[in-house]
Task: structure prediction
Amino acid sequence: MPKSKQTSLMMAILPSLVLYIAAFVLVFLSREDLASTLPYWEFFIPVVAVFSLMSGWGQAYVFNRSRLFYLAKQILHWGALGGLLWMFGEIGIRDALNAGQYNILQIYLLTFAALTAGLYLDAKLFFFGAFLLISAYSLSDAQHFDILAIIGEHLGVSDAQNKPVTLLAILATLGFVASALILMAMRGGALAKRK
Result:
């Protein structure tokens, strides 16, 4: 493979890598003090939205879907999440919850948005949403990591309930690898289409 194609593949994978690393760091910091990371998660939501918008652009091309329609769906999808969070502030839900409770609520909403975007807009985002779902669960149910024990058993991590950071790092890595494989398949499909 020529060096220029390798470089472009590395540049295509880089945003996904940054997204997973940022999410892992935010989850790690949130484990210590969920309330203090609220502004970081608020900043992270539009970052994920922009990533989703750019990430599925090539997928729309490969599957012969209208890019204008794809763009409209992305704007509606992520705009609905932004509108919902704005509405929570306007009608007092944000003020009714403490910062930690509101933060976990917005993390779950981001998770739902990422999972649904992964299902119908960009498959790579599904794996990110799955990682966020397990992360959100570990943040919201700090005393009972039942699902972490089950996942750890399948991944060969002994005593996973007491090693949530290790398990989440493994899950982030697996999600990134799955996303990278989908990205490579989409790039292959785009190259085949151009020939």
User: Anything to note?
Assistant: The mean pLDDT is 84. Residues 26-188 form one domain. The radius of gyration is 18 Å.
